[in-house]
Amino acid sequence: MSGNARTSREKWGGNIGFILAAAGSAVGLGNVWRFPFITGQNGGGAFVLVYLLCVLLIGLPIMICETTVGRWAQSDPIGAFGKIEPTPGRRTRTVAVLLFLSAAALLVCRHYGQGAILMILSLTLAVRGWRIIGYFSALVPLVILSYYGTVGGWTIAYFFKGLAHSLNFTTTEGAAEVFHSVEAIPGVSVSYQLGFMSLCAVTIWFGVRQGIELVSKLLLPLLFLLLVVLIIRSVTLPNSGEGIRFLLYPDFGKLSAEGILLAMGHAFFSLSVGLGLLTAYGSYLDADKNILTNSLIIVTLDTGIALLSGLVIFPALFSVGMPIDQGPKLVFQIMPIIFNSIGGSFGWFWSSSFFLLLTIAALTSGISLLEVTVCCLVDHFHFKRRSATVLAAAVISAIGVLCSISFDDWSRLPALQRAITFLFGGAKGSMFDMADKLSSSYLLPIGGLVISLFIGWGWGTDNVVRQLPAHPAAADTPEPSLAARLFWGIAIRVVAPAAIIIVFLHTIGWL
């Protein structure tokens, strides 16, 4: 990137704007929708404790590394990692060879999709160096947002249905009928999905300060306020104490090895690490901001809102005697039943408030995911921001339409089903399911793994530690202490890569 481009680069208006935007990227449907139902399926408090430990030991170090690289390079993810290592060195080629051999092993074992991904990664790494992390950073959010926008559209639909008193069902059959009327009718599902993407695109259109930062300052406090209101209603219900105990009291007898691995994976994914988002946001951060302090605040907000979401859901579940292990349908089908059971004539109010909360959570993440792709187009491919926004939103929306029309099965996309079956050994579920699996099981772990390997063994943990305080380039900036270097060296070089590899092997069925 040219010097002029750097000079005119947008910046956050203040530290609060960066913190709220980064926290908003992490506080998405994963925390408000996914965290409660996987907690319910895996024993409650013990799962939560393992999740919190994994956030600190795995998620936080990689979050700090991504933000550090972005601020240091003042560029999009592709340019940032390319600046650190303009041409592939000996270590890079060694890693490329190891990845190539791993890809060959996967191909021999007939894991064609996984093998192809690693093969492309290894060859690109050998030729282009660590810019591959940046290319992954542009690709992963595109895949995630394509199906995430579908769920975001459902939250908007349910919010309006709540206001219209259309969520007044009290049985699972009635809940399933309403959900079917949203997701199974292509015109309805696609319309709401495009509406959700339009809201994300309009925000990105106005840039960092007038778009992302302004919207984050409005939505995050509103999200917190809605959480507090819903928590007050939930914890004042009869027998709500049992739900609070389930969430906060660790009973390790209910925690399985499967639950531990799931907690590790969710800790990694819930912070939005491994997809270049924090690299892009870090590139808009001034040198007078302390990355370590900001990262700790962001992690606290992210995990805090996940726990608060649990305090909305579990006391209500226990109060009305509903099962706690409902899975993904918990939010869209079970929660309205609960609100109608406890709210009297105000069930519509609690339902619409809850789905407004979900809509805000979805938007804050969707905006951030779109910004990664736009940032790469602007910085690396020299698009104007508004042109990049239109292009990125159009491509993602087009893929998202395919996810929306095939949520139930592949009946509308048979050719695509055959292709994916050949690559990945089976196209179970739908394109929506495959997009989710591709991103969460393959692209995100691989992206996070190469980031931790590169930072730990390529760029070096000393460079990360030097960038943590405010004004890292100042003459009086002290050298990193031995304790700090040891901690980050172990966390980035050993703990994070090992944990990601374990999670990856588990998700592909090898562990």
Output the CATH topology: Hydantoin permease
> So how many helices?
21
CATH class: Mainly Alpha
Q: Radius of gyration from the CA trace? A: 22 Å
Strand percentage lies at: under 5%
N-to-C order of helices and strands: HHHHHHHHHHHHHHHHHHHHH
Coarse morphology? globular
The proportion of residues forming helix, as a percent range, comes to over 70%
How many strand units?
A: 0
Which second-level CATH architecture applies?
Answer: Orthogonal Bundle
**Tally of individual domains:** 1
Structure in words:
With 511 residues, the protein is mostly helical. The protein has a single domain, classed as Hydantoin permease. It contains 21 helices and no strands. α9 crosses α16. The longest helix is centred in the last third of the chain and has 37 residues, at 431-467. Residues 1-7 have low confidence and may be disordered.
In short:
The protein has 21 helices and no strands. The protein is mainly α and 511 residues long.
